[in-house]
Amino acid sequence: MSDKKQIADALRGLADNESAMDVVEKQVEKYRLDLLRPVYKDRDELIGRVPSFWMVVLSQHSNFANFIRASDFKYVDCIDDVRVEWDEANPGNFSVNIKFHGLEGDFPAQSVTKRFRLVKVKDDMKVSGNDEDRESGDDDDEEEYERLLSDPVDVEWPVAYDSINPDKIQDKRASKKEYRTGMKTLFGWFRWTGLKPGKEFPNGESLAELFANDLYPYCVKYYIEAQRDLADEMSDSDNDDSAEEPLELPSDDDEVQDHSKKRRLE
Amino acid sequence: MSDKKQIADALRGLADNESAMDVVEKQVEKYRLDLLRPVYKDRDELIGRVPSFWMVVLSQHSNFANFIRASDFKYVDCIDDVRVEWDEANPGNFSVNIKFHGLEGDFPAQSVTKRFRLVKVKDDMKVSGNDEDRESGDDDDEEEYERLLSDPVDVEWPVAYDSINPDKIQDKRASKKEYRTGMKTLFGWFRWTGLKPGKEFPNGESLAELFANDLYPYCVKYYIEAQRDLADEMSDSDNDDSAEEPLELPSDDDEVQDHSKKRRLE
């Protein structure tokens, strides 16, 4: 009996130890982002001087295209800048800012910022405030996990999308299919809240995480990969323009593959 | 022309920026390990109080079994303790310590420590010293990457493995097949160097990384998962022994899936 009690005590100790590790991980994440913030700021400025940087990154990324509609790429090609900023106090919360240039008569130039907040959730959909019950929930047996939520943010849709633009669809019942198609576009993602699964942009949380944990942290590596692929394709043509040559960095392909793990933020 | 020069300058700036990020990542990794070290130490002590902890973790892990031979599990079940320690100055280097209890007449109790060092490598197999040419390599166009190497470490093999034990095979030419079989066992892994691909334990680097980046950091989560699976299986039987019940921690399965990324060390 004393043995069993000792084991139970050790298991309780291990549960506390796991909590201590989670606290360390959050502290490390904050430390990392505090150190990276000025480096990202310098990088944003440098990226702004490379024409079509984000067009190259977004059009060549192996997964980004799976989230949106093929017709969206006309407007993805309008993206001049992408920035992700993490809250200093709460690095689980972040915003994605996207700057588009316009297309005459179809699509206005605009800068759109969508914010995401990491919230604690119990038994699936009961959402509790951010951080609030981190301590008080200890006695509770219900499983608790974290997920992203967001609020809809205004974005001007292309005129070419009028038929699927939810603000321009008069009869939502009659145009259910068009409404749903619209919600699956990149513009639909800006309306995503995380609270109406099946009725809004699919996998909105994953696309937010793709920006924050993959596309933004590794955009330079993706750009270089894309340029390398282009250089390989053009290797038999005359290619004496040094600015067009792939940028050599001390990294191999395997390393690039791994990066979505290394700089992952949760 | 001035445009092209500006772009080339920006690309060079981005290469420097990537190097600055790598420096930050290494600094963050050191910070993380410095914070985790005392937490891991407490945890090692707690784990030592839970009988068969590592037997449960190693036998239930979805990937570990793929690295070794099925017959090795008789000796995996002898593992009473696993510890990973990262070098304070150089967190890319680490050691894996495994403690076995003995099996009467077959296998002696022993504690074996295998050290791994992360080295810079150029054009595949030319190995350079750890850290040495991090700066001097800048002008070099060759791609450089990091990989693990190790030295063989003494371990006593089970008597049952005499026929495949490389130290007991008299004629290596005649017993090539037995020799190779031996090298594929867990005991073969302790001889792995990383310098003789095809002739030593297969994927020795990956097994080292599995211990350091997955099994050791997430062993408590794996233990809980395994206990939960057991509890599910026994859910219709009388089960009033609280020490045998799954330990509830604030994490969901998705989170567990993700952990190998979150605490990943490179």
From TrEMBL, chains A, B:
InterPro entries attached to this UniProt entry: NAP-like_sf (IPR037231), NAP_family (IPR002164)
Compositionally biased tracts (Acidic residues): 232-256
GO molecular function per UniProt: acetyltransferase activator activity; histone binding; identical protein binding
Chain intervals for the UniProt region annotation (Disordered): 231-266
Example of a GO cellular component annotation carried by this entry: H3 histone acetyltransferase complex
Spans traversing the lipid bilayer: none
GO biological process terms, semicolon-separated: DNA replication-dependent chromatin assembly; double-strand break repair via nonhomologous end joining; nucleosome assembly
Family annotation (SUPFAM superfamilies): NAP-like
Family: Belongs to the nucleosome assembly protein (NAP) family.
UniProt-recorded name of the protein: Vacuolar protein sorting-associated protein 75
Gene: KNAG0F00690
